[in-house]
Amino acid sequence: MAGSESLFAVAQRQLDAVAERLGLDRAVHQLLRWPLRELHVTLPVKMDDGRTEIFHGFRVQHNDARGPCKGGTRFHPEETIDTIRALALWMTWKTAVVNVPLGGSKGGIVCNPKVMSQGELERLSRAYVRQVARILGDDLDVPAPDVYTTPQIMAWMMDEYEALQGWRHRPAIITGKPVPLGGSLGRTEATARGGCITVREAAAALGIETKGATVAIQGFGNAGQHAALLSEELLGCKIIAVSDSRGGIINEAGMPAEGLVNHKRETGAVGGFPGSELISNKDLLELPVDVLFPAALENVITEENGPRIRAKISCELANGPQTPEADEILHQNGVFFIPDILANAGGVTVSHFEMVQNISTYYWTAQRVNEELDLKMTTAFHDVYERAQVEKVHMRLAAYMVAVQRVAEAMSLRGWV
Ligand code: NAD
User: Fold this and answer.
1) pTM tops 0.90, yes or no
2) Are residues 287 and 330 part of one domain?
3) Which of these is catalytic: 46, 70, 94, 106?
4) Based on the number of CB atoms within 10 Å of its own CB, is 416 exposed (0-12), middle (13-18) or buried (19 or more)?
5) Domain assignment of residue 365, yes or no
6) How far is the CA of 294 from the centre of ligand 1 (A)?
7) Which of 288, 312, 343 is the last residue of a domain?
8) Whose CA is closest to atom 29 on ligand 1?
9) Cα–Cα distance between 192 and 197 in angstroms, integer?
10) pLDDT tens figures, 214-225
11) How many domains does the chain divide into?
């Protein structure tokens, strides 16, 4: 059913299930089902050919009981307010599950950056900030990069925000910046590194040896490529299958992660990697591997293919890759899935470190960033795993129980409900 259901409806349904399980107060539940605030903006932008094009954008702030809102900004031709709302909810749970003092938000612009020049993208980014600046701030809401937005776009957005503030330096207004402008070391690979740390902990809990463990990765962008590099480097795993939007490849003997990354960079696709054979994206998900990383799209593991998923551990680097129906099927079949709000929370965790460094003006070494990330992710994994054991539920429900309870407690202490 969830295939035709909107992402926001899925996000609300996930909350409903945990609210029932926790016996959540009705008002708390109803408040958490909706964003606290939404801003819809219309943006005139001068294009290179002299026309003025009108774009639409959004910023959705779901909840800020635990701290300023935090969430990425997406540039996508099929962006909808509905998707942004779902992602804002997930950000609230994600910041709560890793216990950073932030809330949840998300933003987006309906546009196709693939057909826009750098100048057009810069004018669009600045126009967006001029409109949404009224609800942004390092004490209000802090954007970050997301689908099709880059450190360069974050730099333009920060510059525009500071100009609006009379050129006061406020680098913590946005994260995912280039390092020379206050970006954090370790941010680029933080999502995948956080995911690999949760896999390490899951494997130890389940008695699975990671050295030589087989890995399949769906999606070979930022998250997928770093998952390949780090699962090999940190865990000693063997990458046997990877895919991108053009299809997948497999080699049971294993493929070197760095070679795969170089091949993708040089040819634009994973296909054609020496020694590999082709495999469809669909078949890749069903391989009997030790570790599966869904790292591309939402809703790829459903009630249809759920019964055929045979990975021992699935680490959800993508947001929303698995439907609620599939959760039950995988759980019954003994597939240990690490839910997105925990598995990919390394990105927002290092974004928080970036804010801390910006505000203190003292910058950390990459080693310190990685050590602090390890501590946060390991603690979050065990908070969730122990809850799952005690409640005898799957890891998604346990992660939601931990997160929703933390947010509900903050709302209650503030006297909101
Ligand atoms: P990206 O744009 O860098 O890469 C996406 C990859 O998915 C590309 O390799 C693309 O070819 C591939 N892809 C697209 N359609 C596909 C299909 N049908 N089948 C297989 N592969 C397909 O994006 P990213 O930053 O790596 O993000 C991937 C996922 O991880 C998204 O769901 C994103 O929300 C999530 N995520 C990323 C971060 C981060 O820090 N990068 C943080 C949290 C969550």
Assistant:
1) yes
2) yes
3) 106
4) middle
5) no
6) 9
7) 343
8) 318
9) 9
10) 999 999 999 999
11) 2
